[in-house]
Amino acid sequence: MSPYPRLFCFGSECHPNSDLTCTGGYDAIIQYLNDGKRTCKEVEDFMKARASIEEKYAKDLLGLSKKVCGHNEMNSLKRSLDMFKLQTEHVSLSHLQMAQSMREEAKKLEEFKEKQKEARKKMEQQMDALHKQKSSQFKKTMDSKKTYEQKCRDKEEADQNVNRNTNTNNTKHVEKLYSKAQQAKQNSEEADRLYHQNVITVGKVRDEWLKEHVKACEMFEKQAMERINFLRNTVWTHLNQLSQQCVTSDELYEEVRKSLEQCDVQEDIEHFVNLRQTGDKPPGPVMYENFYSGQRSPTVAPPSRLPPPITRRGPLPDPNDNDTVYSTVPDAGYSVIQY
After folding, report:
1. Whole-structure pTM over 0.85, yes or no?
2. Nearest to 41 by CA among 137, 106, 116, 127
3. b vs e for 321-339, b when ≥16 Cβ sit within 10 Å of the residue's Cβ?
4. How far is Cα 205 from Cα 30, in angstroms, rounded to an integer?
5. Would you state the pLDDT for residue 272?
6. b/e burial code for range 128-166 (CB count within 10 A of at least 16 → b)
7. DSSP state of 166
8. DSSP H helices in the chain
9. pLDDT tens for residues 55-66?
10. What are residue 19's phi and psi, to 5 degrees?
11. Using CA atoms, how far apart are residues 124 and 129, in angstroms rounded to an integer?
12. Are 221 and 12 in contact (CB under 8 A)?
């Protein structure tokens, strides 16, 4: 089993032909952490949007509960309708409370995300500095290696020139070649010393980087585990809130159902009749009455509010009756029409 964190094992892997400056694995870890941070933001925004939906629904439901519903109804059905409106109001308030709880959970997620961001920022800055140092020292070492190799080639060439001119009678020229060979040897030895020193230095830099890299991977892995667990629990809590809201709504609606069970149809009808009754007998039929005879139907007595019957006047008086006095006109030519 590897002594390093799981993410470190992945993060330390580079292409076999890559050099010490390769950060492919580390970059993959950072990308994974950035994707996780983005997921936290997406879940946070989702919960805030859901809270806004719940809040709008709660306000609309509260407004609906204030509207007239069964105002003119009476008795048991009116009580049920009043309970229906009351519990609708309570449901709206419970949704409003749930929206607030959702915002609180979203706030916790935001704080968790910012806390991890600050912890990562410090570690990433430290690792970026080590990567620059490692890259700089590696470049310096590779440059010294090239210089060392070139000095070694110069030394070999100088030695070959001395060997080729060993039997030459020109002593001065041989001495000159020998002097160059000695100088080339000194230069190669100095380049070797510098190269070897840089290799030791880059080794130390690598050891320091590796030590901090392990620490960084341990922290990053811990953050990833905490993030996954926190997101899991956050969504779980969110679903529990939704489930609890369903239970709460059903309990409130159950109160309405209980009230409806007490609603008695016959009782409500009797209540209306007793409250608004105007009598227990219908008005009588309208009868025909003869104007001249004053006869009425013997079957039904006339209502008391009718006027007294009208009878015909008696016969005309007899003109031969001595008890009756009439006016006479002595003039035979008198005419009423004329005057």
Report:
1. no
2. 106
3. eeeeeeeeeeeeeeeeeee
4. 22
5. 87
6. eebeeebbebbeebbebbebbeebbebbeebbebbeeee
7. T
8. 6-11, 24-65, 75-164, 171-261, 265-276
9. 999 999 999 999
10. -95, -175
11. 9
12. no
Structure tokens at 35: 């994707």
Count CB neighbours of 185 within 10 A. 16
DSSP result, 291-339: TTT----TTSPPPTTSPPPP----PPPPTT-TT------S-TT--TTT-
Give residue for tokens 């007793």.
274
* HSE toward the beta carbon, residue 275, CA cutoff 13 A: 9
Question: CA torsion 36→38→40→46, rounded to 10°?
Answer: -140
Neighbours of 198 (CB within 10 A): 20
Q: Are 47 and 112 in contact (CB under 8 A)?
A: no
pLDDT digits (tens, 9 = 90+) for 77-97: 999 999 999 999 999 999 999
Residue at 216: amino acid letter: A
Task: Identify residue 98 by its one-letter amino acid code.
Answer: M
Q: Residue 23: enclosing H or E segment and its boundaries?
A: none
Tokens 């440059």 identify what position? 143
- CA-to-CA distance for 162 and 182, rounded, in angstroms? 10
